Amino acid sequence: MMMQMMMGYGKGQGKSGLITFPNDKKVFIGGLPLTTAPDIELNKRLKEHMTQAGACLFAEVGRSAKGGAAFKTREEVQKAVEML
């Protein structure tokens, strides 16, 4: 067990999701459907919708009817805010 932890297989392997993107390349979205568990299909639909504004790298709907999306550039973030 100790050997696994030293090789990086234990807890704390790294963060994932929206938190890994810089703040200036994220938009936060409210008024989404309320979910009780992660919904992969809903996340895919949100990402497709956000792609209208540019290269959406990641989109996620949270449990509190809020979500977020990450874009490649700041300009795409601004376009998403204006368009959508």
> What is the string of helix and strand elements?
HEHEEH
Describe the main β-sheet briefly. Answer: 3 strands, antiparallel
State the total count of DSSP E strands. 3
Name the structural class.
alpha+beta
What is the quaternary state of this protein? Answer: single chain
The Cα radius of gyration reads 16 Å
- Give me the number of helical elements: 3
Give the neighbour order of strands across the main sheet.
Answer: 1-3-2
Uncertain spans, ≥5 residues at pLDDT below 50? none
Shape: globular
Q: Report the span from N to C terminus.
A: 49 Å
Mean pLDDT: 87
What is the strand content? 15-25%
Task: Estimate the helix proportion, in percent.
Answer: 25-40%
Features:
84 residues, alpha+beta, three-stranded antiparallel β-sheet, 3 strands, 31% helix, 20% strand
Structure, described:
The mean pLDDT is 87. With 84 residues, the protein is an alpha+beta fold. The radius of gyration is 16 Å and the shape is globular. The chain has helices at residues 2-6, 40-50, 74-83, and strands at 26-30, 56-61, 66-71. Strands 1-3-2 form a 3-stranded antiparallel sheet. The protein starts with a helix and ends with a helix. The chain contains 3 helices and 3 strands, in the order H-E-H-E-E-H.
Which helices and strands, and how do they pair?
Blueprint lengths: L1 H5 L19 E5 L9 H11 L5 E6 L4 E6 L2 H10 L1
In short:
The protein is built from three helices and three strands.
